[in-house]
């Protein structure tokens, strides 16, 4: 994410029904400008759409509308440059922008016609999140690509696959990488699905019950790109739901929590693989750190932080669910608390996804170490059972016979491939001379060519399929507010 310019925040007072300004304590407690200023772009865009609509129904004259839009544009440039003065007493991004606009352009006093901050904030968050989903999508695609490339760089690398963190069966390293590509693909599916519900225009809901004025909701929705596949405007259908619905925030944070869990599991694999005990990979210096005390250390901090940061993403989801669960209809100020949780989630998943991709691009697989570990003949004990099945033994009996063989090997201090044919046959007469062939690792991998299995052809085909599907992530569609759909 582009680092925002630091913003100036100051204190002033308000008017209307209230005789005086809030105490500084109250202002400091209730303000959201310190974080919701991030919605300024969307707030200006929403106001531009709203003004355009007000002009179309005759509430604003052409000149008033032009002045308002020019004023909004000028304020936008100042915010971008970091010279705009945010005021804490004006609470939030919506009031700050409108108050300053009205000071400069008197006709802006008409801008809030048929609008409430309740539908305004719902709109701004939807607009903001819509862009963020597109940006996150791109990061996830990059990570998928890094995983595919990592697997493809080491097409021959074989590692033990683990269950219960005990060596189980050999798999190609690429097969392991592609497992994460599948997980991420499901995350993308969930992001896309959520986008359907984010991309609905709530403006026109008013504070709770719409408006008596003859506004044109379709025009606003179309202006802001809230359109379905056939180009028809997508509008919220109930004004009460329109202002109080934060499901789309919860859904996004839920999808992000699962993405963060996937990243955390990947991080854990990386951390294990980078230990001396495993030794399967080396991460280059740029993505590791040393110890201030122990000169030999090279720590996988990026992976550890990825694992650690998943905690706050999961926590953000919990905070939101608890925040919403007791709220009576409709808008309640509690809802202001959604933003920091949402912003933190977006920032955290975007940066961890990006950093993990960068780290994997800088990761080297030690194929010799992997092969030595994967060459443990015990990993092919299941293949021995399958051998007996092909000779007619029921699998349960075959499993039992091979279990006895493993116990015998352990007792006699031999590895499975060191056991002689007569010894095999004492345990199960169906074993023939060809049983030794079972322990050839390359041949063993070739016995696994089903769809979804880690055979060399199956994995190569999956790598090709993903390369084709992922294409060039740089040209992936995506863009700025209102234009990306
Ligand atoms: N800053 C507020 C929020 O984020 C905006 C809506 C305020 N609405 C109100 N009725 N006070 O929720």
Give a quick set of tags describing it.
485 residues, mainly alpha, Fumarase C, Chain B, domain 1, Fumarase C, Chain A, domain 2, Ribonucleotide Reductase Protein R1, domain 1, two-stranded parallel ribbon, two-stranded antiparallel ribbon, 18 helices, 6 strands, 5% strand, disordered C terminus, binds arginine
- The total count of helices amounts to 18
Report helical residue fraction.
55-70%
The end-to-end distance, rounded to whole angstroms, is 20 Å
CATH architecture of the largest domain: Up-down Bundle
CATH superfamily of the largest domain: Fumarase/aspartase (Central domain)
What's the arrangement of strands in the largest beta sheet?
1-2
Give the mean pLDDT.
94
Low-pLDDT runs of 5+ residues are 473-485
Task: Sketch the topology as an H/E string, one letter per element.
Answer: EHHHHEHHEEHHHHEHHEHHHHHH
The portion of residues forming beta strands comes to 5-15%
Shape: elongated
The count of DSSP E runs of length 2 or more, i.e. the number of strands, is 6
**What class do helices, strands and sheet pairing give?**
mainly alpha
Main beta-sheet strand count, sense and barrel state: 2 strands, parallel
Q: CATH topology of the largest domain, anyone?
A: Fumarase C, Chain A, domain 2
List the helices and strands and how they pair.
Layout: E1 8-10, H1 24-30, H2 33-36, H3 40-56, H4 62-81, E2 85-87, H5 93-104, H6 117-153, E3 158-163, E4 166-172, H7 173-198, H8 217-223, H9 239-244, H10 247-273, E5 281-283, H11 301-325, H12 338-361, E6 363-365, H13 367-374, H14 381-390, H15 395-411, H16 421-427, H17 441-446, H18 456-470
Parallel strand pairs: 1-2
Antiparallel strand pairs: 3-4, 5-6
Bound molecules: arginine (ARG).
